[in-house]
Design a protein that fits this description.
With about 260 residues, the protein is an alpha/beta fold. It has one domain: Rossmann fold (3-Layer(aba) Sandwich). The chain has eleven helices and ten strands. It is globular. The chain binds adenosine-5'-triphosphate (ATP). The site of adenosine-5'-triphosphate (ATP) has 13 residues, from strand 2 and helix 1. It comes from Microlunatus panaciterrae. InterPro entries: AAA+_ATPase (IPR003593), ABC_transporter-like_ATP-bd (IPR003439), ABC_transporter-like_CS (IPR017871), P-loop_NTPase (IPR027417).
Length: about 260
């Protein structure tokens, strides 16, 4: 197995003096190529802050981040531009950030222009839509409100895929969806791993979803990574009290296990 990303002692503090919040404290983990890893924890545990540091959208207070052997902790300029091609993000309610009066075509073509691929980009777009089970014909001329939550989320995944990333960071990519659509998007994430060999870091508060998709689970509580291991070990033989508590809230999981 080849390591793609390594986080060593990552720490993020917000504010100064009396108002200091240590959102992420001394967190270390690594991701292998073709691995689907889930970060699980309750609201406020620091998951999104960790994700945003990994995405290099937030300065890292201390620690080290290495991507494919290269130190990207304080990457700037060209180095970050390259990093953002290799590492793409899908966020919770991405469409809220976009103009509701733009068709999907316009939304996606804007991203294509960033790539500078011109006509060839259209092919890449179709290909990306295909990976999430959509076609341009179905969705390109629609407006965001004309799509289901599941379609919207899959379009945002396709948008990330157009950059042909090596690592996809999906932060609560399913939280806006009802149960059946949620499984649908989780299956898309699995397919990306299986068919494209992509590494996926999936952030969720729901340990049940982690159980469904992940090869490995990282558990965060109050800024600390309290447990990490294979999904089987973490779900069926949790060592930390906090993991046990998260699992106790999902009784079905125990029954089926
Ligand atoms: N920009 C900021 N300034 C100050 N504090 C922040 C900032 N961003 C996050 N925090 C704090 O850091 C802690 C971790 O927040 P974070 O959003 O990473 O948690 P989370 O596990 O992703 O929660 P959720 O699931 O609700 O998104 C919280 O106490 C939060 O209030």
């Amino acid at each position: 197995m080849t390591e793609i990303l390594k986080a060593e002692h990552l720490t993020k503090t917000f504010g100064h003096g009396k108002n200091v919040v240590e959102a992420v404290k001394d967190v270390s983990f690594s991701l292998e190529e073709r691995e689907l890893v889930t970060v699980v924890g309750e609201s406020g545990s620091g998951k999104s802050t960790l994700a945003r540091m990994v995405l290099r959208l937030l300065p890292i207070t201390s620690g080290k981040l290495t991507f494919q052997g290269e130190d990207v902790t304080h990457a700037r300029g060209r180095q970050t531009a390259q990093y953002w091609q290799d590492v793409q993000a899908v966020f919770q309610d991405p469409f809220s950030a976009f103009n509701q009066f733009f068709t999907v075509r316009r939304l996606l073509y804007r991203s294509l222009r960033l790539l500078g691929t011109g006509e060839k980009g259209k092919e890449r777009l179709e290909e990306a839509l295909g990976h999430v089970g959509l076609t341009g014909k179905d969705v390109l001329d629609r407006f965001p409100h004309q799509l289901s939550g599941g379609q919207r989320q899959r379009i945002m995944i396709a948008r990330a895929l157009m950059m042909q990333p090596k690592l996809l960071v999906a932060d609560e990519a399913t939280s806006m969806l009802d149960a059946s659509l949620r499984v649908n998007v989780l299956n898309v994430l699995k397919d990306l791993r299986d068919e494209l060999g992509m590494t996926v870091l999936f952030i969720t508060h729901d340990i049940g979803q982690a159980n469904y998709v992940a090869d490995r689970v990282l558990v965060m509580e109050n800024g600390l990574m309290v447990e990490q291991g294979s999904t089987e070990d973490v779900i069926y033989n949790p060592q930390h009290e906090y993991t046990q508590k998260l699992l106790a809230d999902v009784p079905k999981l125990h029954q089926t296990g």
